[in-house]
Amino acid sequence: LKGKVLTLDTMNPCVRRVEYAVRGPIVQRALELEQELRQGVKKPFTEVIRANIGDAQAMGQRPITFFRQVLALCVYPNLLSSPDFPEDAKRRAERILQACGGHSLGAYSISSGIQPIREDVAQYIERRDGGIPADPNNIFLSTGASDAIVTMLKLLVAGEGRARTGVLIPIPQYPLYSAALAELDAVQVDYYLDEERAWALDIAELRRALCQARDRCCPR
């Protein structure tokens, strides 16, 4: 029999270096504890409070009804004739569906996202910024912040040796940044926030990190 093609030794070493603490052993142990509590195992506590990630709905926050209504209508347009949905949600769903190929949410969209949604985002930015025009053609929708960050890093990272791209990230940091940089084989450049000043940014510390990094990489 031939050996395994993909093993820890043969896989991409950049991926092997990735660490993502919010999905690590502490979370796995928390899941085990929750399961044990459901099974009636006696503990010195009655619940597990998830503080590893900003997962508001997992902590009991109720979702915004309007969003769920519009999504339900888009996924199953037959509900547009239902009296259980408000008219404003129906209008929003119809506008989105009109912009989809075949008037179906399952159709492919252009890479930057559905046009009416990008127009709405541009209008919001214009109102937020006191009337400064925003062009919907410059809006690129993503599947969450993490996907957008990784996409931008892919564009920035290049070079080898001392020419490798360096990216400054704050410490403490959200593990997405270090994980993405490890996967892309970029250089992580740490600068430390000032805990005594409510984790404020210190410009001198930022300059220190930048200057020292230039000896081993190309900060971008």
From TrEMBL:
Superkingdom, taxonomy of origin: Eukaryota
Subcellular location: Cytoplasm
Entry keyword annotation includes Cytoplasm: yes
GO molecular function: L-alanine:2-oxoglutarate aminotransferase activity; pyridoxal phosphate binding
EC number(s) reported in the record: 2.6.1.2
Keyword Transferase: yes
A GO CC term attached to the entry: cytoplasm
GO process terms (BP): L-alanine catabolic process
Catalytic activity annotation: L-alanine + 2-oxoglutarate = pyruvate + L-glutamate
InterPro entries the UniProt entry points to: ALAT1/2-like, Aminotransferase_I/II_large, PyrdxlP-dep_Trfase, PyrdxlP-dep_Trfase_major
EC class name: transferase
Aminotransferase class I/classII large domain mapped to chain residues: 71-213
Cofactor(s) listed in the protein's UniProt record: pyridoxal 5'-phosphate
Pathway listed: Amino-acid degradation; L-alanine degradation via transaminase pathway; pyruvate from L-alanine: step 1/1
One matching Pfam family: Aminotran_1_2
Gene3D superfamilies given in the database record: 1.10.287.1970, Type I PLP-dependent aspartate aminotransferase-like (Major domain)
Keywords associated with the record: Acetylation, Aminotransferase, Cytoplasm, Phosphoprotein, Pyridoxal phosphate, Transferase
Subunit and partners: Homodimer.
Protein purpose: Catalyzes the reversible transamination between alanine and 2-oxoglutarate to form pyruvate and glutamate. Participates in cellular nitrogen metabolism and also in liver gluconeogenesis starting with precursors transported from skeletal muscles.
Family that this chain belongs to: Belongs to the class-I pyridoxal-phosphate-dependent aminotransferase family. Alanine aminotransferase subfamily.
Protein name (Swiss-Prot/TrEMBL): Alanine aminotransferase 1
Species per Swiss-Prot/TrEMBL record: Elachura formosa
Taxonomic lineage of the native organism: Eukaryota, Metazoa, Chordata, Craniata, Vertebrata
Gene that encodes it: Gpt_1
